[in-house]
Every structure is written in structure tokens, then in C-alpha cells.
Amino acid sequence: MSDVNVTKICCIGAGYVGGPTCAVIALKCPHIKVTIVDLNQARVDAWNSSDYNLPIYEPGLEQVVRETRGRNLFFSTDVDRGIQEADLIFVSVNTPTKKTGVGAGFAADLNFVEKATRRIAQIATSSKIVVEKSTVPCRTAESMRTILEANSKPGCHFDILSNPEFLAEGTAIADLLNPDRVLIGSLQTKAGKSACRSLCEVYANWVGLDHILTVGLWSSELSKLAANAMLAQRISSINALSAICEATGANIDEVAHAVGKDTRIGPKFLKVRSVGFGGSCFQKDILNLVYLSESLHLPEVAAYWRQVVEMNEYQKRRFTRRVVDTLFKTITGKKIAVLGFAFKADTGDTRESAAITLVKHFMEEKALISIYDPQVEHEQIWMDLQEAAPDYAPQQIKKQVQICPSAIDACHEAEAVVIATEWKEFRKLDWQAVYDNMSKPAFVFDGRLLVDADKLTKIGFKVEVIGRGAPGTEMTI
Ligand SMILES: NC(=O)C1=CN([C@@H]2O[C@H](COP(=O)(O)OP(=O)(O)OC[C@H]3O[C@@H](n4cnc5c(N)ncnc54)[C@H](O)[C@@H]3O)[C@@H](O)[C@H]2O)C=CC1
Ligand SMILES: O=C(O)[C@H]1O[C@H](OP(=O)(O)OP(=O)(O)OC[C@H]2O[C@@H](n3ccc(=O)[nH]c3=O)[C@H](O)[C@@H]2O)[C@H](O)[C@@H](O)[C@@H]1O
After folding, report:
1. Residue nearest to atom 6 of ligand 2 (CA)
2. Structure pTM?
3. Quick one: the chain helix, strand, coil %, rounded to 5?
4. What range(s) does the UDP-glucose/GDP-mannose dehydrogenase C-terminal domain occupy (predicted)?
5. pLDDT (tens digit, 9 = 90+) per residue, 2-24?
6. Which of 1, 23, 92, 114 has the fewest Cβ atoms within 10 angstroms?
7. Domains delineated in the chain
């Protein structure tokens, strides 16, 4: 069997993964025509917009799209044509946590993957390599193969590969240009290995072969869940230790630094965030792993991973509690400025953002909340809050919450500032001006260890830093 020389790629799903990933493939493989298709007309229109007002904010992305769009990169809602033309199809659709039915709250909703797979089977009139890019439970490729084989036209052969994506939002382009590894899983058959080589060749246009790992299909699928679970586990571990620091007077920064110096542990992903981890994937993928473990009758394994998510929820509750306790045990009617709403800096994405939970908690305490984020659309903030607090009427939410055009506006006459996202502009804020316009005493709760606490204290702020005891309890020997 000769390997397919890939000249036309279709990516189903023009989201945070499909868009940047395939834009970079187009950039690095000018000989390949890459078409990204999506059912969402507004999203495709934004990708095609003449002023490059792209649907997602990602540093460096606009430049890549400017260079490739119309050359060998195309965005379209014509899913069928995209499928028909391609030699290789990435399935990069969303796989959110199921909200209802069997496995609700834990299992991945594979409906979008299944629909895309069925469409491929229905439309394709020639053989294709189908690549699972979405994060999916272990053995999903088998279901895809069954669907494709049961519905394929005579003469059409489908090879399924797993090629999970490891990019992080905010650094997507850098991660894609210089990945730690590209992982490709295939069946260990002649056809499977041949398909794997075809995809390797695409990546080999810019990724060294020593960074392209080829493994079995199930290992590849599980490695993606495992990587996210282990990254999140490190964050929950350091967050758990931050609670001990606060109770003992130890300093979590010093502890994390000392621990991370051990080369077996390493320094990355040990940054304590009082607001806990957010993002569309960590929680979803761990819950997915929990569900998988339970389905495999491994309750101890399920309980182990579940605890990572529980610790994260505890961290968010603990932070709200600290705000309330510090503000003299009540925030009713008090104005709290929340700086940042995205789940991390350099993205406009709010999925599972810890800021949503914090604002919800503040609403329950009857505070008045003013929010500012440099990238998140206002409409998105209202939608997120309504979804998080379905019992609140929209007017009630708008009575308690306002969205401001700048950080300075949000902080005006506030009693406390809560930094919920580590946007650089918050570090550079004119904190003296913020202080002058706030109610006194003026509190800053740095949920991201972003600002210079000593400098702010000198201005007059009362600064609360996670992982350190309250001011005055530091070691003074
Ligand atoms: N967001 C991230 O940073 C990362 C996400 N992942 C995984 O990648 C997958 C995609 O995630 P995102 O890009 O964030 O999701 P997303 O929600 O931003 O994009 C998915 C897109 O697929 C489209 N879609 C759904 N069904 C379709 C169909 N049948 N035909 C055509 N288009 C369809 C949707 O309209 C949507 O625009 C998920 O499985 C996620 O777990 C993996 C690594 C990083
Ligand atoms: O599957 C995915 O979706 C992706 O999930 C994460 O990427 P992402 O969620 O975009 O961003 P991260 O940088 O991992 O941050 C996730 C959350 O953890 C928090 N975090 C991160 C690092 C840290 O030390 N402490 C910490 O609290 C961040 O503030 C953020 O809320 C992984 O890092 C990616 O490898 C993976 O591809």
C-alpha cells in the first residue's frame, strides 16, 4: 500500500483548536490546500472578515491568517464540499461535558463528533484519512470507524487516526509552531501505519521527527486526557498547599520555588491561583476521565481524579470567603471591582472561567459588582452570568452587575478590587489613581499574584495575597 500524499486538508470545526491549528498547517505547508469548515455562519464570516476581526483572540494568529487566507487557507460553511475534496479530514468539533442523560455532568458529549463522522460517511465518494483532533474518551476512534464503515460507499476506505492537540490558549501560535510533541495514534495495521506516515509528513514540514510520536490509537486518546489531568493535578496540589501556607505563615511562592527546583518535579504549572484553574478543558477532561474510570469499574481511580476538581472548587470558595471575611464579614451592598473575566490572560475565552464563579458568589452575597476585561465581549459576560445563575432574572443581574469600559472605571468608588485574570495592563495600572478614587479602607485581592503587593501597600491599599497569611502575620524574626 502506498502512502497518501496529502494535498487537500479539510478541518471540521473552526473553533479555538481547528482555526489556529489549520492556519499554521497552511502557513507551513503552502503546497497543501486547507479548508476549515463550520456550521456556524457568524464564526466563518468572522474568519473571512475583511478587517481580520477574527472570532478568537490569540496573539500572532491574525498575522498567520493574513499570510495564508485566500492563498491556501479557506474558511467556509460548505461542509460537504470540504469533505468531498479532502484527502485528510480533521474532526475538531467541541466535546463538552454532557448536561443531561447518562453520564450527565461527567461524560463527554460526543454528539458533535458523531454528527461530523456520519456526514463524512454520507458525503465522501473517495477514500479519506479521518483524524480525531477533538479530545475524546479512550476508544472513540473505534465508534467512528464503526460508523464510517457501516455507511461508506463502495470503494471508499477510511483510516482513523488520533492526533490530539496540546496547545494552550493565549500561546496557541507559539505552541503550534514549536510543539513539545506531536502525537499520532493509529491502528497497528498496514493501512493504519500508512495513514500515520501521511500525517507525519504534513507535520514534518516544520516539526522535527524526534518530536513526532507515533503510538497506538488508544494510547494516543488516553495520553491527551492524562496530560490535562496531570497538569490540573499539579495546580490543585499547589493550591492545596497554599491553604496550609496561609494557616502556618509559610509563603507558597517560596515553597513552589523550592519544590520546583527539584529537576524531577520542575518549576512549571506550580503557580498558585487563588481563583483556581479555569478553561474549557481541564475540568471537562478530568470529569471525562472520572467517568471513564467509573465505567471501567475502577472507583478508586475515579475518586482520585475527582479530587483534583473538588480541590479547585474549594480554592474558589476559599477565595470568596476570604474576600467576605476581610471586608468585615459582609459585602452586602458593597461595590467590588472584578478585573478580568477571561479564564487566563491573552484570550477572550471565558469557558469555565473562575471569574464567573466568583461573581456568582459575590451576587449571592448581595454585593454590587463592576467588571472589566480588555477582550471579553460584554454580551458574553451577560450570557455567562445568566447561565451560572439561572434563578436570577436578567434585570436582577443587571441591578447588581455592571460592565465597565476600563479598569479605572470599574474601580471607581469600589471597596475592593479583585484581580481575576492576569492581564498585563492590570500590573501597569495607575494604582495611585485607583486608590484615590476608592472607598477607604481600600482592599486589593490579588487572585493571580500579579501586582507588587509591597508597592500597593505603600500607597495605602490593604493587599490580600493567596498563599500568605493576612498582613501582619508574616515572619518577622
Ligand atoms: N480550546 C482549547 O484550547 C483546546 C481544545 N481541545 C479540544 O478540541 C476540541 C475543540 O475545541 P474548541 O476548538 O475549543 O471548540 P469550539 O467550540 O471553539 O469549536 C468547535 C467548532 O465546531 C463546530 N461544529 C460542531 N459540530 C460541527 C459539525 N457537525 N460540522 C461543522 N462544524 C461543527 C462548532 O460550530 C464550533 O465552531 C474539543 O474536543 C476540545 O476538548 C484540545 C486542545 C486545546
Ligand atoms: O486541552 C486543552 O484545552 C488545553 O488545556 C490547557 O491549556 P489552557 O486551558 O488553554 O491554558 P493553561 O495555560 O493550561 O491554563 C489553564 C488554567 O490553569 C491556570 N493555571 C495555569 C498554570 C498554573 O501554574 N497555575 C494555574 O492556576 C490558568 O490560570 C488557567 O485558568 C493545557 O495547558 C493545554 O496543553 C491543553 O491543550
Report:
1. 168
2. 0.95
3. 45, 15, 40
4. 337-453
5. 899 999 999 999 999 999 999 99
6. 1
7. 8-207 (3.40.50.720), 252-465 (3.40.50.720)
